[in-house]
Amino acid sequence: MTGIPDPASFRAQARAWLGTAAARRGETRAWGSGDDSVAVFENWTEDEERAHTERIRDWERTRYDQGWGALSWPVELGGQGLPPHYEGLYRAEEAAFDVPQRTEIFPVTRHLVAPAIGIWGTEEQKQRWLRPMLRADELACQLFSETEAGADLAAVRTRAVRHDDGWVLDGHKVWTSGARVATWGVAVCRTDPEVPKHAGITVFLVRMDAPGVTIRPIRQMTGGESFNEVYLDGVVVPDADRLGPVGQGWKVTLSVLAAERLDSGTLGLDNADRAIELARRCPAGEVQRDLAADLYIRTLVQRVIGLRITAALEAGTAPGAEASVGKLYATETMRRTTDLVLRLLGPRLVADTGEWGTFAWTEHLLGAPGYAIAGGTDEIQRNILSERVLGLPREPR
Amino acid sequence: MLTIDPALLAETDEQAQLRSVLREFFADPGADWHTLAGQIGVPGLAVPERYGGAGYGFRELAVALGEAGRALSPLPLLSSAVLATSALLASNDDEACARHLPALAAGTSTATLGFGTVDAEAGRLRGAVDMVLDGADASLVLIPGRTPAGLTLFACADGFTRRPRRVLDPSRPQALLEFHDAPATPVGPPGGAEAILAAARDAGLAGLAAEQVGGCEHALEATVAHVRQRNQFGRPIGSFQAVKHRLADLLVEIEAAKSAAGYAAACVDAAPDELPVAASAAKVVCSAASVRAAAEYVQLHGGIGFTWEHPAHRYVRRARTSEVFLGLPHEHRARIAALLGLDDGGANVA
Predict the structure, then answer these.
(1) Residue A392 and residue B247: Cβ atoms within 8 Å?
(2) Class of domain B194-339
(3) How many domains is chain A partitioned into structurally?
(4) In chain B, what residues touch A348 (CB-CB under 8 Å)?
(5) Do B260 and A394 touch (CB under 8 A)?
């Protein structure tokens, strides 16, 4: 691409390219046969997770190599040098195509970790890490939460102690998705226990195959294993892999978390669409029709919220509150999807009769609560909205 | 579904300017129709130039309605500039449009649309229609009449009595109109009233949604300002999570309402095929948001919010009145269910 195409012609070009590289959506997923999974969190063995990751990685490499990846990154860092919102324009087009559904680790790497490296990394780190991450050659997971540091993330206790020209890490991280397929883990560590908690934090990129790193899957309430706990026992990390200054790790962490909050706009829409389709095909009474119409309205509104953000970005203005409410709106969509499906399927939701597309919804029912917790609980989201958007006084901390 | 250009959901500079002029205008308790119509030209915003309007679109009119709704203005924008004007335009009756629209656009006359039906015989109307918005003051009333050719829309300027009803929301007057062989002229084709009413109703819903969003925004802003400065237990009540989280949830609901209302307003001109769903969706989402916003407006102001002198109750009155006007939310969900093909699910069992 030379120069910057205007948004409309960019979208047309993206659509044209996607047409050559992927099949249109909807032509591929028939009702009543084939895969009926509506899992919110995949229930994969390690081998399956690796196989799926490779399939997604192939697509990501294809689009990167053909000039449709890393759109808003500077050319010298391996990107296309387009304005930031062009990624959103591309994604709006890609949504109409049947491309491998990205697992969590891909957006975590590209939308959360890579931008933090872009902000905080040294020139050497940017050269070394960004291109492989943007091309999905190397994936990065988050080593953030701990058993005693969830909503209060700044309370992390994983220690990093200086040793020769590097650091030695000891601690225990939880709720890491993609740990088994990641090359790097972004670890939030305490380097100074003597200062107030936000001031004593430093962030490191840890090789997940380093000696002393042990990964154990966590079995979540769905029965599957989509997350891991990661033990760090005397893991040696060179100082060259420290991201940002010593003691400035909380700011680095906040850059990652802000990106995470804005990355959740389309959450839950696929399954809500499917539940409405189920309502079309099930005998439905007045209550079910009312719930289905209400859920349809939610999907419409959630998409319009997405279009408003696109419109603001296209106009070159910063999106307002509409960009911050997305995650709370989406978790409610997921709950209401469960409510509708339960009223449509009744007993067939809770006992497996072998019928296609019925008991499979238990994966949604059990997975949906996870998103009201992951990436900042609904309660933390409400704190953020009330303090940063409405300007209400902060909690006493 | 959802084919509109995202750019239509963002406010243009011109619209932002109009908004700021109107915010100032409606903030004045003496805001009058003469200035709104004659000087700012609001009733003519969405009227084509050939009928004496300014030839902008419904989105510009929606900006004005949002500001009117924010201030709970009693001026007859929704009845005259939206419902009656949309009905005339939807009638495709060039003669009726040429006769009535220039005066409506200039605001020298106002009109309203009744949704009940009367009997029509040889150009005379007989019967009664109740709860007509601004019915006591409108110079012209558009009303569907039963004729041998079917339901036909009529325009009627005299020969009827008007009895104002006592209403929950005094800023939204309603009247009983009784027609005693009132002379009337048909608008649009004989038997064509239902299509005209459907179009006018959907435009009305889009306009109402814009008003509802304006009211929501006022309620949220006033409540946020209050909880920031009201101290109890030695700190602002807005620092308590029990208060903050309610307002965060309200913000989410208002952003949803803005999205639904903006989409419906854009559909009026740009995507008429999507308007029926968009208008009903906006009714559902904006009604829920306004009722909640008004309830929080009262509740989070505590005792002062329950007084007659405080404006919060006026927003409760408007929110509930708007919730009922042009169909209740559950009726609009039923309409969407039908439009989605959800009403005959039994015929096609999975």
Answers:
(1) yes
(2) mainly alpha
(3) 3
(4) none
(5) no
